[in-house]
Amino acid sequence: MIPFASLPEAEEALGRSLTLWEELWWSKTHNVSDYTLYCMNIIFLFVIFSVVPLPYVLLDVLKVKSAEKYKVQAGVHNEPSATWRCYKVVMWTFFTVVGPLQLCSFPAVRLIGVRFGLPLPAVSEVLMQLTVYTIVEDFGNYWLHRWLHNGWWYDAIHSVHHEFSAPMSFAAPYAHWAEVVILGVPTFAGPAMAPGHIITFWLWIAMRQLEALETHSGYDFPWNPTRLIPFYGGAEYHDYHHFVGAKCSSNFASVFTYCDWLYGTDKGYRYMKEVHRKEAIAKSKEQEKREAGWLRADDLKPIPSFLSNDIKSS
Ligand SMILES: [Zn+2]
Ligand SMILES: [Zn+2]
């Protein structure tokens, strides 16, 4: 509960006038408990898990031809029945694990010092904290994910997340309940180390989930703004991890590529990229010869879409 009974009281306590956003925040939340504000996260997550994946999932199950050139695993699609089963399992885990964890973790959020009232954080503070949270989560997730690929941990827990070798957005939170708990630790580590406002916390949880939905989408669109982020992995990077599956010893990081590079766990992926690059050059030369009339058109097979992308970038 915000400890100011009125706007003038808040202005007097802060020693300045409130911004428009602070007035709005006060008017919408001054009679709402902190616990209720924290639990809003459950609604946000439900919407993110249910609505945001739909465009990607529709492209996948409807096998939309115009989007096929952006499909990471060209020609590989999930059946509608598998997609629906995936969503049902995700919702079961959401209502039996994620939701109750949210309801019970409020004392911890209070303890680490997340703020609910005025003043609202400056944009620079929010951006700084989100950056710290992302770096902390990426590092922690890298090591826990790598550990989950060992023996019993993989067979009993992490194999569930790897059921989809050609991932789709619904499959991002598709995991054993124990994995949800284990990988929740680095997600909460950042806010525990640098506690901020509940708005920052909401943004962090939403941002992290949106990133996971995108990296599991199975589509790598060239206009995606995440391509501008330095060392960002993206859909193609994590797709490789699912494509290889149980024996994969590459691409463990959740967001960036530098942990895998630093600890030498991107060798398989780099090798695959190099093979594709060389194949693309060879195909490109064949294409040039065909266009110059040195080869008959039926001497050549069509170039797969993922290789076409390589041709453009080589
Ligand atoms: Zn894995
Ligand atoms: Zn995954």
UniProtKB/TrEMBL annotation:
It is found in: Membrane. One of its GO terms (biological process) is sterol biosynthetic process. Coiled coil: none annotated. Residues 131-265 form the Fatty acid hydroxylase domain. One of its GO terms (cellular component) is endoplasmic reticulum membrane. The keyword Nucleotide-binding does not apply. The chain crosses the membrane at residues 35-59. Keywords: Membrane, Transmembrane, Transmembrane helix. GO terms for molecular function: C-4 methylsterol oxidase activity; iron ion binding. It comes from the Eukaryota. Its main location: membrane. PANTHER family: STEROL DESATURASE (PTHR11863). Belongs to the sterol desaturase family. This is Fatty acid hydroxylase domain-containing protein. It comes from Physcomitrium patens (Spreading-leaved earth moss). The gene is LOC112281769.
